[in-house]
Fold this sequence. Notes:
This protein is mainly alpha-helical. The chain has one domain: Orthogonal Bundle (Endonuclease III, domain 1), CATH 1.10.340. Helices cover 61% and strands 0% of the residues. The chain is built from 13 helices and no strands. Helix 1 (10-24) packs across helix 12 (185-201), helix 2 (35-44) packs across helix 3 and helix 2 packs antiparallel against helix 6 (89-105). The two termini are 27 Å apart. Bound molecules: iron/sulfur cluster (SF4).
Amino acid sequence: xxxxxxxxxxxxxxxxxxxxxxxxxxxxxxxxxxxxxxxxxxxxxxxxxxxxxxxxxxxxxxxxxxxxxxxxxxxxxxxxxxxxxxxxxxxxxxxxxxxxxxxxxxxxxxxxxxxxxxxxxxxxxxxxxxxxxxxxxxxxxxxxxxxxxxxxxxxxxxxxxxxxxxxxxxxxxxxxxxxxxxxxxxxxxxxxxxxxxxxxxxxxxxxxxxxxxxxxxxxxxxxxxxxx
Length: 228
Ligand code: SF4
């Protein structure tokens, strides 16, 4: 397999999904009360753990500023203070402001809802501070579009399972999942959440292969166990 190849078949990907679902069950993602909160969370979760995002969102909720209009009434420094628990708070405050301004300029959520998935993705990616993973989080969990989210956990797991090459790009992984699987929003939502859960429970940077549910199909895991 080339280093840039996504070589997984539908059978392999659905088999992996079934194994993860059996091990961890439904994850009930994305934990948010509104689409706007999903959008905010997708920015705040950049480079930090979700537990920190929860604290920042709780601050925004307590201050009653969880809408684009209200959030833009705050000064950047006041906003940064509220989202401080999520880390990189000055940068993220500016990114949230960019997102809110773009959202309002575009006519709000209902105008975005009317866009095709590819047009909506282009719009999100045009916002300073919104990269592919953030845009795809918003598309999948905020706008219920069948777009597969790729994160570092997904890349690491598939590489260890020998299902993708080491240098496969974000786009090749995303389009690979989307081409191989049925365009099912609930499947994509659950799949991404299960991969994150598996990364936390077993396939961490230092993997716990001995008790991993995927050990029978994982070449990297078998190599790890042979060195123990
Ligand atoms: S066997 Fe080890 S490397 Fe493979 S998926 Fe499980 S934890 Fe990750």
